[in-house]
Amino acid sequence: TGTLYLVPTPIGNLDDMTFRAVKTLKAVDLIAAEDTRNTQKLLNHFEIETKQISFHEHNTQARIPELLERLKQGESIAQVSDAGMPSISDPGKELVKAAIDAEIPVVPLPGANAALTALIASGIEPQPFMFYGFLPRKASEQRTALQALAEARQAVIFYESPYRVAKTLTTIREIFGERQAVLARELTKKFEEFIRGSLSDLIDYATASARGEFVIIVAPGEKKVPTPSEVPIDSQVQTQIDAG
Ligand code: SAM
């Protein structure tokens, strides 16, 4: 059988393409791309002549049997999305599962990814973190999702479009309360920028102007100090004994 390679592509800076990514895309029989026109520009830049087939959220189920068949016949396939890691808020995961089920080797390449790139320069404690990706768009579902995240003591990473970033930050503040947060804007590009501050600061920024691509990282909440009446009786006694 062939191999399914998962190949990350740059998130804004072509120099972030790895040597191995170029080699792999040259060597495979076929590239399954989220948007073949977009990927063609990348292929032209790196003089890669491999044929492409479209593989995106609207044709995933239709394409999988065909791609599996080709893999079983011994062809190797590289899957790419428009930017960054396949499967991370992008197409790919269904093909990975199908390949694993069919016992076809799956080989991931490391490379560009917006979430981790933002996290390492955010200044927010990076462990533990939770990568959420895009919140649901429907207001009620968005709230439910945020409520489930509100209590955990971890950094939370969201992706969001520039059109919704101010509104989403406002809903996050409403449900999480005031917290420290970071907007990582236009990563790896000319106008890369980190906006660090409270959620309220970031809401002011995003309301004034929000152009480009954004990652939102929200710091863990402060540890809630229980008021005396919330402390279980046993441990109140214990505290008195310790203090005693
Ligand atoms: N697969 C990609 C990855 O590995 O990061 C993510 C694709 S997702 C469809 C696109 C979202 O990722 C954007 O809406 C934005 O939140 C984030 N993103 C992608 N590129 C970015 C960049 N250069 N700067 C900041 N955020 C970016």
TrEMBL record:
Whether Amino-acid biosynthesis counts among this entry's keywords is: no
One GO CC term, this protein? cytoplasm
Per the record, the major location class is cytoplasm
Report domain Tetrapyrrole methylase positions: 3-202
Q: Which domain of life is it from?
A: Bacteria
Compartments annotated for it: namely:
Cytoplasm
Query: Is Phosphoprotein a UniProt keyword of this protein?
Result: no
Identify a single GO molecular function assigned to this protein: rRNA (cytosine-2'-O-)-methyltransferase activity
Instruction: List the EC numbers from the record.
Output: 2.1.1.198
- Catalytic activity line of the entry: cytidine(1402) in 16S rRNA + S-adenosyl-L-methionine = 2'-O-methylcytidine(1402) in 16S rRNA + S-adenosyl-L-homocysteine + H(+)
Write out the similarity annotation.
Belongs to the methyltransferase superfamily. RsmI family.
* Protein name (Swiss-Prot/TrEMBL): Ribosomal RNA small subunit methyltransferase I
Give from-to of the shown chain within the full protein.
14 to 257 of 289
